[in-house]
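Summary for the steering committee. One of the milestones for this cycle was to obtain a three-dimensional model of the protein with flavin-adenine dinucleotide bound, which we needed before selecting residues for the alanine scan. The sequence and ligand used are listed below.
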Amino acid sequence: MIKFSQIYTQTKPIISVEIFPPKTEQGWVHLCERMSHLRKYPLDFVSVTYGAGGSTQDRTLDLVQQVQIQVGVPGVPHFTSIGATRERVCAFLDEAVAQGIGNIVALRGDIPANDPNFLLNDRDFRYGNELVAFIHQHTDQLDIAVGGYPEGHGQCPDLAQGIEHLKLKVEAGAAIIITQLFYDNSHFLRFRDRAVQAGINIPIVPGIMPILKFSQIERIVSMCGTTVPTHLRESLLAQTDGSPEQQAIGLDYTLKQSRQLLAEGVPGIHIYSLNNWQAVNQLVGRLQDLVKPRGA
Ligand SMILES: Cc1cc2nc3c(=O)[nH]c(=O)nc-3n(C[C@H](O)[C@H](O)[C@H](O)COP(=O)(O)OP(=O)(O)OC[C@H]3O[C@@H](n4cnc5c(N)ncnc54)[C@H](O)[C@@H]3O)c2cc1C
């Protein structure tokens, strides 16, 4: 299976999409029915999230398999180690390798907000760098992506320190960095500059989330500490939530944001799809002209 280290040496920008395993059987059937539509786009891989809370963890690898069969591109599982034992991590990695998977998005995961007794220091894995090092020690079959936070992370708002923590993950063996979603490219560009200055020289891939319903995006950004530029917020709020007018503004913005990032030479765009095929269809369809080989 093609690895991140090969994928990101292509001479064109890499377009990838993130999806999540639905919670219900009905949602699962619905997703599988629609997934094959993605075949018509030049996607390079599809990643599948891992429910840190436990509800859909067992379905991540099932959905990765469906991606490979139905979309015909590498499926990449996410994995979070928060609260997991070494045995659980080994079991997940072994299953992924047995399925012929070549890549993984490795994350520490969020500290459970509903468990006041949760102590990070009691755990087998306290931070992402420990997970990355463990994966490397356990198998050489998986290339590893890690998370990056252009606007800082809730547990570490100091951006300079955040870069030092990111560097630990790179030194532990990460092949690429995929960032948290952001709506102001200047945050990403500053983050990239700081990372490069700190000696980080692996691909840093921006994560982008199309806006189709602003109330939904507001919930998400409040959880992950992402800011929405005032002018964008005002123009979205001037429209009815989720209306075609609001969707048009949101998608135009995402397209403009992606264009600017590609012009800045990013190695690719990772689209947080929220399983919204309308967004993926429109965005990837319109990005197609922008992902021709560099210099073509
Ligand atoms: C691309 C991407 C995909 C994601 N997919 C999922 C998913 O599928 N499921 C899910 O539940 N969540 C997912 N998340 C969210 C992620 O789990 C949370 O953001 C989590 O809180 C951080 O995980 P991490 O591996 O980036 O953590 P880390 O890199 O461990 O960082 C966590 C915090 O600890 C600090 N830190 C790191 N190392 C050290 C150290 N050595 N000493 C002190 N402090 C340190 C960091 O600055 C940061 O504040 C994703 C995030 C991204 C960016």
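Key point for the committee: The mean pLDDT is 92.
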